[in-house]
Amino acid sequence: MLDWLYTAIAWVMKQWHALFSTFLDPAGGIAWALSVVMLVVTIRILLFRLFVKQVKSQRAMQEIQPEIQKLRKQYGSDKQGFSQAMMALQKERGVNPLAGCLPILPQIPIFIGLFHVLRRIAPGKPGLYSWDNDLTDQAARAKLFTAPIAASFNMVGEKERAILELTGGSYTGIRVVAFILILIMCFTTFYTQKQIQKRSGPVEGQAATVQKLLLYGMPISLFVSGFFFPILVLLYWFTNNLWTLGQQFYILKKLPPPGSPAALAKAEADKPKVDPKLLAPKPGAKPVRLKKGSATPAPTTDLATPGESPTGSPAGGAADGSGAGATPSGRGSSGSSSPGTGSADGSSPGGRPAPNRPRASGGSAGPANRGKRKRR
């Protein structure tokens, strides 16, 4: 049923092997190992758009989490109403929960197909899946660090006998290479899951439990099943993890998780910068100088209220409180000025000229700020 998939995987490997055979030994394990590496690169490039959609979907889900929490509190035990409200919210925001699985789903059949193709390779076997007899036998006899690329840590039956004939009946080289690749595969899988969790941001509840299971469960399950994978399948998984790590690093730099220091720094850097020239006054306009601690310009004139002079004195009266019969010199009926204020002609009580002070409009005598004190 899946022969079309097995044929497609074998054909891609065949094309890359033909390219590397132009400058490498076609029967050597390096040419076949590079063919598997480029198989990973080909698949991941085709799936890159799905990966970007997955990241955007995860970011959108994180942004609507506060609203989902409000809906959970609003509906309480009404699970059906909560599900309908959440689906409506996701549709309104354009969030697709299944988008997070898009890059993973196509990789599962590809991995199974590669495992199936390499499992059937053995010396003396007929050609399969677009490979002729010579190419199949060449792949079965190729070695990577003294281990045949089709060999596994544990083998049984006819394939075990055929592979061990290539190594003189010894498992040592096969198991050393396989065990090292298994350890590297498990370590890179664990580190990749850590990066995925860092990319998706902090989660709570059931999602946190699932993340913890994936973080520790996947490396453990791969360690157990890795003893039955062919050498090239282990190399495929290791290369796939390296590609994922590089992709994660790129995405974390371009699309950091919301609320993270990197996201805040990116938002600050993306803010439009204001040109200082735009804040400067136009040519010919007088710049407005603000007082210290004041957000508006300081008033330059006093506004008189009805019944008062501009300095705050009652209309028709002198500024110093004397009646309408005050003389131009500012003296009252007694002919003397108020103590400490000096005469209105600008001289002090001792005969010394007083410093120039601003006078209010209207010719009234006295300090210019008397009206201000009165209003306070």
Question: What does this molecule look like?
Answer:
This protein has a domain at 3-47 and 103-257. Helix 6 runs antiparallel to helix 11, helix 9 (172-200) runs antiparallel to helix 10 (206-225) and helix 9 (172-200) runs parallel beside helix 11. It has helices spanning 3-20, 29-46, 48-63, 65-75, 79-93, 104-119, 133-141, 157-166, 172-200, 206-225, 231-254, 261-270, 276-279, 370-375, and strands spanning 143-144, 147-148. The protein has a two-stranded antiparallel ribbon with strand order 1-2. With 376 residues, the chain is an all-alpha fold. The longest helix has 29 residues, at 172-200.
Class inferred from helices and paired strands: mainly alpha
The backbone outline, from C-alpha atoms, is elongated
Number of discrete helical segments: 14
Separation of the first and last Cα atoms:
95 Å
Uncertain residue ranges: 296-351, 360-365
H and E string? HHHHHHHEEHHHHHHH
Please indicate the percent range of residues in DSSP E strands (runs of 2 or more): under 5%
Radius of gyration: 43 Å
The helicity comes to: 40-55%
The biggest beta sheet is recorded as:
2 strands, antiparallel
Mean pLDDT: 73
How many β-strand runs? 2
Biggest sheet strand line-up: 1-2
